[in-house]
Amino acid sequence: MARPLLVSAILEHGALQFGSQQVISRETHGPLHSYTFKALAHRSKQLANALLGLGLKPGSVVGSIAWNNYRHLEAYYGVSGTGMVMHTCNPRLHPDQLAYIINHAEDEVILFDSSFAPLVKAVVNHCPKVRHWICLADESHTPSIEGVHVHSYESFIRDQSALLDWPDLDENLGAALCYTSGTTGNPKGVLYSHRAIVLSALSACLPNVLDISSKETVLPVVPMFHINAWCLPYASLMAGAKLVLPGPKLDGASLYELMESEKVTLSAGVPTIWMGLVNHLEQHNLSFSTMRRTGVGGSAMPKALIAKFNEVYKVDVRHGWGMTETTAVATISNIGGEEASWTDALRHELVAKQGKSVFGIEIKIVDEQGQTLPRDGQAQGELMVRGQWIVENYHNSEQTALVDGWFPTGDIATIDEDGVMQIRDRTKDVIKSGGEWISSIELENAAAAHPHVAMAAVIGVKHPKWDERPLLLIVRKSQDFADKHAILAFLSERVAKWWVPDDVVFVDSLPVGGTGKVQKSELRIQYGSIFSE
Ligand code: AMP
Question: E strands within 375-478?
Fold first, then answer.
């Protein structure tokens, strides 16, 4: 009973129980790559031996700057399995921030995709502790970079033995490391223990969470560089599910093609990805042959999009909430037995909330004095979370990140009597108008239901009388539509009168950050004084 919970055990289980199950991977170069769990385990051990051969030890940190692909997956297992730490870096960070996190984490080796060679060039002279740069490619696709020797991954592991007994580690040791997006201040690292990853991955397999079994073919669009791709690369091996990795192509057309050709049944990603996919389906009058369920999170999934997935495309949406600090999914919405008989509209409304905490995680909301607020669906306060895969302190920081044992999320939420949590806003995005709060998420949700709206974002803009007023930015489905009044009239039927934005700006696109979220900080810079000009 006291056997430790280790990442290496997931790989061994997958290879021994589902050895012939497939991993399909779209690569930056060449056709789709396909191999089995058994081959994945073989090559992960070759990588582990190659890293040990460089003198790396348990506790050494190996960074990756990579897409979701099979070599990155080998690193997930080969690095953590030996007790080293897999530090997944977000390639969309500014080079200064990238260098900062590589140095802060003390990465000794960096594994990178060839498409990120320009980024590596930009940071290579600023990362003195990195001893080896390894391109996740064969020799012919490995670029040369001035001033450093770049290894090709294939030649690095080729002559290595696949004989290796994974060490029996303490399950509380760090297995993986990911930094927060750091929109304010420097990014902060969250070190995930083996125990946290195994428990979180087990949780993802549960029927009420993502329901992953060997019947599924799983396509994680959510990046392996961000919150462990919600632990799907682990959960799929635990459950024996076929794993399809999309590589660099995340546009609607490429995802649809992969979903159809590989008969994907289950996917997961941020709402902006699903908006792109739905636009592609609508424009080409397409439907899914096998897709039946998708996990969505990272930002709020508008109700109108949930309805479309559900009714038009027959895809069950599971709307989850989590953050870098929560390893993977912490809460998820789902339709249980009783709700199945509700009207479509009521069910979509329930799924548009962020759902119940999964077993292992507890949530509560508190007021500004830290007092717990009632679970009545009305009281709003800061969401606090604790559990077996929640951060306690940031990497290399002595200070606890917790307040009385709970992690303060910076999200404003309500929780109802059934435990269903709804994110109303980020503390920094909520709009304070005349002393009252307006939820930018709810306004965006309402705007997204308009037939001419492809994407919507709402920000609070300084206002001489009301302190702040909402401004709505819209990406239109067609440029011909330019009727602000129609949009505002549409909204006034759906939200309180004083919530209706003071203005609408039509834009060609919205700034989307490294993890697929609209960068409201950029919008605030650009439009922050529009009502006082
Ligand atoms: P990150 O650490 O970059 O993954 O960001 C975590 C933040 O994303 C959370 O604190 C929320 O503000 C936001 N977030 C994640 N999932 C959702 C969701 N389903 N609905 C609304 N906001 C979300």
Answer: 381-387, 407-415, 421-426, 431-433, 436-438, 453-463, 467-476
What average pLDDT does this structure show over 24-45?
96
pLDDT at 183: 57
- Measuring CA to CA, which residue among 263, 320, 325 is closest to residue 294? 320
**324 within ligand 1 shell (Cβ under 6 A):** yes
Q: Which helix or strand (DSSP H or E) is residue 87 part of?
A: strand 85-88
Model confidence, pTM:
0.91
Name, in order, each residue with C-beta under 8 angstroms of 202's C-beta and a sequence gap of 6 or more: 235, 238
Tell me what pLDDT residue 234 has: 98
To the query of whether residue 417 is one of the catalytic residues in this protein, the response is no
What is the per-residue pLDDT across 479-510, written as a single tens digit (0 to 9) for each?
Answer: 888 899 999 999 999 998 999 999 999 999 99
Is-catalytic flag, 432?
yes
- Give the whole-angstrom CA distance, residue 217 versus residue 215: 7
User: Would you say the CB of residue 298 lies under 6 angstroms from ligand 1?
Assistant: yes
* Residue 437 in this model has a pLDDT that exceeds 90: no
- C-alpha 487 to ligand 1 mean position (Å): 27
Protein residue whose Cα sits closest to atom 23 of ligand 1: 299
Catalytic residue, candidates 74, 325, 382, 442: 325
Q: Which residue has the higher pLDDT, 93 or 288?
A: 288
Between 521 and 375, the higher pLDDT residue = 375
Does residue 154 have an active-site annotation? no
The protein residue whose alpha carbon is closest to atom 7 in ligand 1 is 323
Pick the residue whose CA is nearest to atom 4 on ligand 1: 323
| 437 labelled catalytic | yes
Tally helices (H) and strands (E) across the chain: 15, 25
